[in-house]
Amino acid sequence: MKAEREFFDPSPLPWRPAPGFPPGVWEQVISGGQDEGVTTRLLRFEPGSGNDRVVTHDFWEEIYIVSGVLECGGRPYPAGSVAVRPPGMPHGPFHSAAGCVSLEVRYRTR
Prior knowledge:
Layout: E1 16-17, E2 25-32, E3 39-45, E4 49-50, E5 60-72, E6 75-78, E7 82-85, E8 94-96, E9 100-107
Antiparallel strand pairs: 1-2, 2-3, 3-9, 4-8, 5-6, 5-7, 5-8, 5-9
């Protein structure tokens, strides 16, 4: 469940290792987080970090690349790129040569 919050500065929220990723990928949960299918987070890839596998999950995922370039499936996506993924859609592997930050919104419709 997500808590109600009016505009706030998220910088004091902790960055922690992103579940399911190797070292070098960090998340900052903005809201939700108790259930990974109901979460808004920033995801930060350190330069050279990523994973080497294709993943699927049982929730919707919407992503906006805030800065840097994220490679997904070997194709580079620059800042300003957007993805909308339904449950069960294969995606990945992920890598960022120079580092990047994305905003992710994850949710279930049922």
